[in-house]
TrEMBL record:
It comes from Clupea harengus. Its EC number is 2.3.1.225. Residues 332-351 have a biased composition (Basic and acidic residues). It catalyses: L-cysteinyl-[protein] + hexadecanoyl-CoA = S-hexadecanoyl-L-cysteinyl-[protein] + CoA. The gene is zdhhc20b. This is Palmitoyltransferase.
């Protein structure tokens, strides 16, 4: 076996240590709560039953969302974002970056891309040999490009991105509920520990540590959870919060924000009854995202599209989109379209008669 292969296997194995650590803490907390607290320490049967039922509810939701966050594979760019064979060969032969950019631009002209690198170039991953869709980033830990990558999380040994972001938020929420519930119900027995009212068995040390561990996790999860709720409300990934996405008219940290309600719906879906379930309900395909620059006021009259870009709108009030050459097969595909919204791009940059039409669905 090649040394690099062995090294990689070791790295993969070691990466599970934080997950195993969390799993062991959770197993111990289950044993300590159910056996040592509820069965051994609590004298009242009614109290035991209520605690056990509520504990198991929060435990199941917590384990379910944690499981989904860990074992949902990150979503990768689709085949459309790979260079076609001819262009790929040209790209590899070409040594000058500006010529390589020309090749990328040619391929990207048929893709729904709104964002660029800081220098205004098409975002391309040399490692995966793929044009990066908007909000997609290469994760060096996973060694792949991940759609709407948020961050690589060692506690779940997985990339948090488009495919599992909802699960991750629910994992934080349910772990907070789990810890808060334990801390709140253990508190009175924790106080009894210090006043020497607990029977002198080893159970009392489990009770003591249950409270400490639950309180400690509560504090650390609360800050992370609040931060991610704020990000969901703003429709930003952690990466975008640190470095604003660059559109054709420059960086715009709110470029993907569509307003609080729509931002939340993008992650959690339209149907509120599924919001708290760790099942996939996020909107879209992870390859394209509506940007506020292509959204149009629903009150506006329908526009008349004419080939002549300078006189293409009826009342001249259509907002100008900076992503004119991002004309698109994918945005135009059936499942992206509803007839509610129509916006046009009057600034087709190459001066041809084509005009870019964006159809945005309004929920
Ligand atoms: Zn990549
Ligand atoms: Zn990763």
């Amino acid at each position: 076996m090649a040394p690099t292969h062995v090294l990689r296997c070791c790295q993969r194995g070691l990466a599970w240590i934080p997950v195993i650590f969390i799993a062991l803490v959770v197993c111990w907390s289950y044993y300590a709560y159910v056996v040592e607290l509820c069965i051994i320490t609590i004298p009242s049967t009614g109290e035991k039953i209520v605690y056990l039922v509520l504990f198991h509810l929060s435990f199941i939701m917590f384990v379910w969302s944690y499981w989904m966050t860990i074992f949902t594979r990150p979503a990768n760019p689709s085949k459309e974002f790979c260079l076609p064979k001819v262009e790929k060969e040209q790209y590899e032969k070409e040594e000058r970056p500006e010529n390589q950019q020309e090749i990328l631009k040619r391929v990207a002209s048929s893709l729904p891309l709104y964002t660029r690198t800081g220098a205004g170039a098409i975002r391309y991953c040399d490692r995966c040999q793929v044009i990066k869709p908007d909000r997609c980033h290469h994760c060096s830990a996973c060694d792949m490009c991940v759609l709407k990558m948020d961050h690589h999380c060692p506690w779940v040994n997985n990339c948090v991105g488009f495919s599992n972001y909802k699960y991750f938020i629910l994992f934080l929420a349910y772990s907070l509920v789990y810890c808060l519930f334990i801390a709140a119900t253990v508190l009175q027995y924790f106080i009894k520990f210090w006043t020497n009212e607990l029977p002198d068995t080893h159970a009392k040390f489990h009770v003591l540590f249950l409270f400490f561990v639950a309180a400690m996790f509560c504090i650390s999860i609360l800050s992370l959870f609040s931060y991610h709720l704020w990000l969901v409300g703003k429709n930003r990934s952690t990466i975008e919060a640190f470095r604003a996405p660059v559109f054709r008219n420059g960086p715009d940290k709110n470029g993907f924000s569509l307003g609080f309600t729509k931002n939340v719906a993008q992650v959690f879906g339209d149907e509120k009854k599924y919001w708290l379930c760790p099942i996939f309900t996020s909107q879209g395909d992870g390859l394209t995202f509506p940007t506020r620059l292509v959204n149009i006021d629903p009150e506006q009259p329908t526009v008349i599209i004419q080939p002549d870009s300078s006189k293409s709108v009826e009342d001249g009030s259509v907002p100008q989109s900076p992503m004119s050459d991002s004309q698109n097969r994918l945005l135009g595909s059936d499942h992206h379209i509803s007839d509610d919204h129509l916006s046009i791009d009057p600034l087709k940059s190459d001066g041809t008669d084509d005009i870019t039409v964006y159809l945005e669905s309004e929920s």
